[in-house]
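Dissemination and training. As part of the outreach component of the grant, students in the summer workshop were shown how a complex can be specified as a set of sequence lines and then modelled as a single object. The example used during the hands-on session is reproduced here so that future cohorts can follow it. Participants entered these lines:
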Amino acid sequence: MGIPVLSVMTWSPFVAALIVMFLARRSPLLVRWVSLVGALVSLMASVWAYGSYDRTAAGFQFQERFALVPSLGISYQLAIDGMSALMCLLTSIIIFAGVFASWTVKERSQEFYALLLILVTGVYGVFVSLDLFVFFLFYEIAVLPMYLLIGIWGSSGHVRPQGIFGWAMGRTGVGTKEYAAMKLTLYLLLGSAFILVGILALYVAGGSRSFSFLDFAAMRIDPTLQSWVFLAFYLGFGVLAGIWPLHTWSPDGHASAPTAVSMLHAGVLMKLGAYGVVRLGIGLLPEAAVQWAWLVGLIACINIVYGALSAMAQTDLKYVIAYSSVSHMGVVMLGAATLTVVGLNGSVFQMFAHGIMTGLFFALVGLVYEKAHSREIFKMGGFGSMMPGIATAFTIGGLSSLGLPATAGFLAELLTFLGAWSSAHRWWLFPGVLGAFLTSVYVLRVAKQIFWGKKSDDPHFQHLPDAQGTEWAALGILVVTLVLFGVVPGLAMHPIDTSTIPLLARLGR
Amino acid sequence: MTTDPGTLALISLLLPAAAFLMLAIVAPLRRAGRPAAYLSVLFAAGSLASAVLAWRAHAEGVVTRLVWDWLPSNGTTLAHVGVLADADSTVMLTLVALVACLVQLYSLGYLHDEPPAALGRYYTYQSLFAFSMMGLVLAPNFLQLFICWELVGLCSYLLIGFWYQKPEAARAAVKAFWTTKAGDVGLLIGIVLLWRLSGTFDFMAMRAMVASGTLPVAGLSIITFCIYLGAMGKSAQFPLHVWLPDAMEGPTPVSALIHAATMVTAGVYLLHRTSWLFALTPDVLLIVAWIGAFTALLAAVLACVQDDIKRVLAYSTVSQLGYMMAAIGAGISAAGFLHLLTHGLFKALLFLGAGAVIHAVGSNDLPRMGGLAKSMPQTAAVFIIGTLSLAGIPFFAGFVSKEGVLGASLGAHQTGPFVLLMIVAFLTAFYMFRVVFLAFFATPAAQPSLVGAGFSRPEHAPPKGGPHDPRGPHDRHHEPHDPPMTMLLPLWILAALALVVGVYSTIAGHVPIVAGAGHETAPGWLTPAAIGVAIAGIALAWLTYQRRTIDAASLAAMFAPIRRAAIAKFWIDDLFEGVLGFALFAFSTFVGWVDRYLVDGVLNVVSAWTVSAGDDIRTIQTGRAQDYVYGVAVGLLLLMLWMRWALA
Amino acid sequence: MGLQAYLILSAVVFCIGLFGVVTRRNTVGILLGIELMLNAVNINLIAFSRFAGSTIGMVFTVFTICITVSEAAIGLAIVILLFRVRKTVMADHLDLLKG
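and obtained this result:
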């Protein structure tokens, strides 16, 4: 093979980040263009890889490998299967739209774009790495820039300290961006500690010869060890996937983060968690997966309903979306927990669908905030006549979120539900469906409040402009993707099939 | 020119889709308004032609199936999309295409004063609706049906909220979506369960399983009930009927198309389409029959006290949907389907007629009308044709189909529902002729006293006016007159069809378009009884509102408790508001509080403790070198002691 | 006189030095204390060297003396610098490391 397409995809944002840091010092426009080119190269690489991925052959393709530390069995080994190909596509679409969505960042845009692109390199790396050591390195790269991105460019909200633990909230500074950044980073690093322990446990159990995923997969692992390692992976990745009750970093983090960071984080980073559980948890530890499926599914059900109800209670637009992510990640985890091909397909499809959808949402929220300088839902009203484009995009995103057909969200949920009813725990279907209904309640309530009805009398909310220029590009890409994959599900389902069927075949199912 | 019904049906389905795509993607075209409207109407007409051809081309007993792989999963195809053209679907397709086309034509006149962008948006939604509804009708499997089912719900939401700046419209749209979505949850669960049971979504495969008896019957009742829940939401059956009257906030042509002729009948259509499945679960059918009959009665009573002409028609639709459901519950779904078809014709006619009246008068309120027969003779004529059809008078469209429903109910020995349906037949004739007399014949001047004494206006009369309200510019300074040709033509076409169907079916005794809908088993007294009841209703309305022999006030006083309850909509809406507005939102607030202050609170406590502990411990760092030396010395001493003690 | 006597002497000198280091407020005094402690170590080394009949201890002592000298020089330099910057040589005023 000629071009190492996966390396190109992974490192092009990094190279762009370096160029941005060293060359584009005084020209904000150049910063944007360089970033855009970096994102575009990775987008093209991922689309090319996705398109030329052989759907008839299962397994890992586009392999690249060279040894890094031969004595420890660490090597730079990249490959994708259907699932990771889809995730890479998701990442590239989100970052491409994200570059457009943060076109208007003013303060220290050079560092902002550089960090954003480095983060994306980490995300790509996680999706394409087969070597678990490198996987972990990329994982950390993906997590850490978030601290700076939120801490420096974020926005603070207002949370009234009250309740029996009110004193603690005042003490920790709840609501500020520093608080959110710190909470997010600490949580995710805590999670990654569990992951590292899990990986090392497997490494030692395998005779300390190789970190390669393929070697681990070929290994016969003792069930007791499997059980513990699975829990470590579930906890570690689960934190990032926002499992209840370890989800509370996500609403604060997403609400405080700047637009593009929220998009990436809710759209892609949370998927890293789910991807990790599926790839390492279920993929490497089949017996433990069967053993702990009840726990994963139970927590997923709590996530779905609890997240939806919490979203309904919020008055801050960003918090609504953030909690809806918690709810939807529940669907992802539920699909995985079913351990059926249909359910797992639904799970992976939901990762993609939710990634695009929530990216769209956060882009829209960013736009609304930028124009109206408010995130308080119940102060806004009647924006539809002033910003019809944003209203339309919001409606489409909302409809996908509540699982309306002809958007990707519906198929993902349907497949998950089918899987849930075919699984060992049939009752999982009902929380799932209930969650979809609750989503329709809060999403439409928000849409109605903001865009429909009488125009607000607030003088700040007169003459708001619609989306324009680059903002259209961001919205357009996301909306089209969302609808395209909803109307032509085969685009995603064929590649997903190639990875989920062998994965579950290991479970004997 | 192809004569394959499948292909023709597909063309019919794709034409509105093409129109929708063009309008949705080409923004300048959409914003231009009129051209967008013409394009949409043109495509709808083409779709209608193709649908009629498909219907005529379809041979008796032949089912044409045209499908493509759509949703692959687990190495196979989980679901297809395509068209399933058979007798029922093609005739339903024709109805949908017909009403859609006529309504789009009519809207050209009705929405004359809309700004171009809004008009373009309207026709975009209309095209999407036509496409989705046809997709629903032609669906070869449950999945496509569900998809289109949701899409028509979406269109309904968008079109009810067409004047989205009116708070009532926004409320009504969301209410409609939520209520039907609640039913759809049931439908989705039913489909998932059924998929697990049968391993397929496909109608024909499933039907083959039923025919060969390989479909397990255990647990099927739950599944059919879940599916019925979906139909309950869409077809506005008690207790999920609350959204339909509120949906009248949308433009009247929308009400005619979506909330009278097509979308709301989707539930009935679904049950008819899967009648072979429901036949296996007679217990569920009994529930369907009872709820249907009860809904019919409830809505008919509600219709009697409405002063808003559209709301009368809306409740009448709910009531007639109950009729259809009752027939399905009786096991003769074809009778329900036939009533669906005829109802689609005359109810669309009534709504469009009402729209013409509203357009001319500038108000929905019956008390503000009166004597319109003189100034709008053509509208009055077609409206009366529609009313007679609805009342079930011979030689009009509703007669035979209504007989069919009553006969089905009686034939299934469901005496309870049958009695309810007979009462409804009386009430239907009464309230519809109340509208006719109040709007077209009574003298307007005489009405205020009549209203004040008797059927007062409900308190929720919506405010009139607003920038996009077509009712705004028209007021009673101008003499009302018949609408322009674009609006009259659809009215006359529908009226003519209602008459043709009525005359033919009355003479022939059956309607040839739906097999198995006859009422051969019904006893001979049924027909005279039904006609008698209807005429009694008309007579009562005539005596009360035209002749004034019976005082409306004393009539109202006679039924005072019921009337009061009916004006409050039997408190069902309030109940939902309470459950949703109070219980659900309060509970969600509670959960939000728990998340913010307990789940997250614990975390904050832990971190606050960490911070405090750090604060406390750091005070031992005095910063003085001597203290550290002291510490080192003491540490060394302790270490030596420990060594002495532990190692000795 | 056995080894013990030397060791006791050394311990006493060490403790005096330590006491000085811990209690003196003047930085120069602290330095003097350190010198005492180092000399206590020297006594130890010489004593062990003498009684064990090995010269290694003496070698180390020579090293220590060298280091002590340089330490004193550097220490005094630091004290002078401190005085220039902070205008004080009192140890309890020098608490920049306070947490």
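The first strand of chain B starts at residue 64 and ends at 73. Students were then asked to discuss how this feature might be tested experimentally.
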